Amino acid sequence: MASQSATDAHTQAVAALKAQEAALRYDHAALSNMSSDEERANTIFTRLRDAEVTSQWAKDGDLTNFAGMDFYGARKNGLGSPSEVWNAVRRMPKGALLHCHFDGTVDTKFLLEHAKKTKKMAMKADVRLSTADALWKATVEFLVLPEGAERSTKSIYTEEYVPGEWVSFEEARESFPYPHPYEMDGTDAEHHMPNFVSTSAPNGRLNGDKAPSNVAQDKGQAFDAYAHALMTLTPHQALPAITNSKQAWAKFQSTFGVIAGLIGYEPTLKAYTKELLRSHARDGISYTETRINFLTDFMVRADGTPNLDHSEWVRIFIEAVNEVKADFTDGSFVDAKIIYTTVRFIDNEKLRWYLEDCIMLKKLYPEWIVGFDLVGHEDPLLPLKVYIPELLRFQQRCKEEGLSIPFVFHAGETLEDGADADLNLYDAILLDTKRIGHGVSLARHPLLTDMVKEKDICIEICPISNQILGYTASICSHPSLLALLNRNVPVALSSDDPSIFENFGLSYDFYQLIISSQSTSLMSLATLARRSIRYTLVDDKTKEIMFADWDRRWNEFIAWFLKEYGHVLKQ
Amino acid sequence: MASQSATDAHTQAVAALKAQEAALRYDHAALSNMSSDEERANTIFTRLRDAEVTSQWAKDGDLTNFAGMDFYGARKNGLGSPSEVWNAVRRMPKGALLHCHFDGTVDTKFLLEHAKKTKKMAMKADVRLSTADALWKATVEFLVLPEGAERSTKSIYTEEYVPGEWVSFEEARESFPYPHPYEMDGTDAEHHMPNFVSTSAPNGRLNGDKAPSNVAQDKGQAFDAYAHALMTLTPHQALPAITNSKQAWAKFQSTFGVIAGLIGYEPTLKAYTKELLRSHARDGISYTETRINFLTDFMVRADGTPNLDHSEWVRIFIEAVNEVKADFTDGSFVDAKIIYTTVRFIDNEKLRWYLEDCIMLKKLYPEWIVGFDLVGHEDPLLPLKVYIPELLRFQQRCKEEGLSIPFVFHAGETLEDGADADLNLYDAILLDTKRIGHGVSLARHPLLTDMVKEKDICIEICPISNQILGYTASICSHPSLLALLNRNVPVALSSDDPSIFENFGLSYDFYQLIISSQSTSLMSLATLARRSIRYTLVDDKTKEIMFADWDRRWNEFIAWFLKEYGHVLKQ
Hints:
2 copies of one chain form a homodimer.
Chain A: H1 4-22, H2 28-32, H3 36-57, H4 71-76, H5 84-91, E1 95-101, H6 108-117, E2 121-125, H7 132-137, E3 140-144, E4 167-168, H8 169-174, H9 189-192, H10 212-231, H11 245-263, H12 266-282, E5 285-293, H13 310-327, E6 335-343, H14 348-364, E7 369-375, H15 388-401, E8 410-411, H16 420-430, E9 435-438, H17 446-454, E10 458-461, H18 463-468, H19 481-486, E11 491-493, H20 498-501, H21 507-516, H22 522-534, H23 540-565
Parallel strand pairs in A: 1-5, 5-6, 6-7, 8-9, 9-10, 10-11
Antiparallel strand pairs in A: 2-3, 2-4
């Protein structure tokens, strides 16, 4: 055997190298400046995490589950159910959510609850829903129709239905003739749709001899589950296996058309916005910058007329945010702003229209429009390089008008290497993007990685979204997340489209990181949370308020955590 | 619209940034110094590649396939069948294969062909193979028994069979009572097992009224397919879905026990070694450093006695290599060396035995033993840090004895972040490893990445192995491959265990890279091939010979390529 001193020297050299590398990390400053309470909490948290990995994710003989596994598999294995780590993650203050698409943020059951209360809500399909096969192949849409608008009285589930005609949502819902899609495979609906089926629902759903009133209720629930299945990527019996990004996007894109008609109605829009803020507040998120897709010209007013224009959407958004803020009488910070977006399949002429529309809205509501972005499936859609003339003109126009509408571009949400979606990173950076949405392919670019760090551009990484949309098999093999974090490139974890993925808030993404990475600690999550505030697009004064609010909440969290788990250190 | 000059300035800035980043890449020197023939070939090759992506991997409306997709899916979509890119990749000289496990390198059908000719070959199972269920749950082993050794005459497929007793391989093969496992799902066997079922096999296999001789032949073929299924990860009807690394390793590890008894027989061992070199030569590989696992104490001699020790394995290896070399009378370079390995579940005491065994073999065959490694599933097995005392002692012993046996450690073949398998990278580097096997987690370590580059440590990346064993969903999302290549960290693509994965040679891994990455060109592949020679563990003089041989073959390849495809440039 080598002398003890040689072994010791090697061990010390390894420790020194690890320390040297750890000093480059994003959480190094936080770990070097812990209060004694934070130090205790951090130690306990790591212990709880390690225990939870062992008891829940790496059980002896369990080859199916692993820490950080795919989101739906993880949910099946209990992710989101109370556990020590989950409870703590859920409770900790998480700062700002910087990347979520407005129409993909709130639980779809909220939209369904509102649709059920909206008498004028109508439904249509492009085929007769007379077979189970048609049910899942159809393009289904919802819309609130004006008073007196014509509606077919034919059942959408029969051969008499004329495809494309509107029918009553209420009738379609209550006469839904198909089984509950989340029960088709014999598993429990609650299991697949957490929080979706009311816990007060009758247990007799699988029972043959139910009272007629229950039958209607069951049909309604089965319909709700069907609508839920149309609006989410949550696996169910009739959803074909998704094995790659192209398949995931095909299903993903179809969900927005279903959601559009439910959300695009003034009273729902306002209620949805309020729920967005409230649900984020419940998850410890103080502030949200949400990307609103202004591609549609108009939404539907309360009276059913379809002429609610962009400036009125923003007005409603502001009203909703202000009403929620007024409700928070405890002094907690809560707020949201808008990033104006349109979709990257338009031409330059149309883009100019949207850019001018954005400028118009910014002038109307200068505090509320904080950035501009182009969204959509990067691989097949148009690259930023196509839009350079108009994007440069926009920068010039903003300068002339004295407006600050920075770009916050999606870029590098791709597996391609050297193709257009990957090359969007170059254009985004040289267009002075303030943040980058996704940047899945960024860590492959050594020079761009350094530039992003130097220019202090924050990368909005959406681990669960990236996994579900086929860019990584799990958070553990994400092409950029850990590489960027370890290089101290600014990263903000984000949820992207939780309506569709069901990773509501930030707790799921935070949990997947902490459970899968032994290098990550409570202080790492705290660093991510606090830093997210730094990369918001608000003025410095507002940031100061947010920081102070976060610090206060963090201290409260640490106090709660030690009260709850302090005993662990004594064990 | 912005002025043309502003747009031009942006476009130029993007081009400059791209060029600046490209200058950091591994292929930059090669691309900057092309001969005019290389320049033409490179342009044509990129054009053929782009066309093949469009025609084969990104067909309109095809959501199933994509360039760089999982290996078995890709094979189903034609990977390995003649195509312009495949033919060129297959034909190009690929230099050295630096990472393959000896008992996992040659096509398993080669072993089966030899088993069929080995009268003394026996088979056993730990359960009666009397049901299809048992067939797939059993642990099956093969072994050549000495003359006169007792064998059960009971059929292994009946209730009379006593589990654990040896039966005749020939009888078991010819009386196999189950259907061809690759036909169970109604698909074509050839499809799933390329080159496995002889193309001259009778087509009447699915036909009910076959002649008795065909029945025996069919039973034998079905048995061969069963044995093939036991030795590979190739999907078939009875193989449960593999969704993560733990499941993949469970199946992967089981294959070696089946292979062991077929390969561990002197005549087969020698023939296998020759086939290893020859099959690599056919794939354009001139030189192989193969890791031989010396965990087993003895193999079986030609006369069936099981006392063939380590030094005799090496002797047989050398004889085989020399015989193949003698066959190559055209002056082409062909050679192979041994990296001594044992498995990382042993204790330090046992490790010392292996290290001394390695030293003994090095003294006996100084040219042939070129390195030492510890192998096995890194996540659950022991980390390098456990073995430091003995590894340091070994270095000291080698110094005293004047022997050069560098470490070439597996490290970072993991999805874990900050756990032991990931931390193996620190130990490996500080133990002066000459190369690193896998390094899947390396790119997440900024300091180690820089150190590896500075110390000129080559990373043996095995993209298809990493995908099949659950470390990445496809080559496109590999956590380190492109990140390291773009930083010009030395990388050698490797096959790892092609017997089991069926990515024989290097063509499959090269193809997956070139087809999935638009940044990769013919000259990139040439750089990888030529560079692999640099990181071999032979002396400088031999390297010079290899380089010269590669250059000659490369020029021949370019001449062939231009003759074959020169017309493309004129189109």
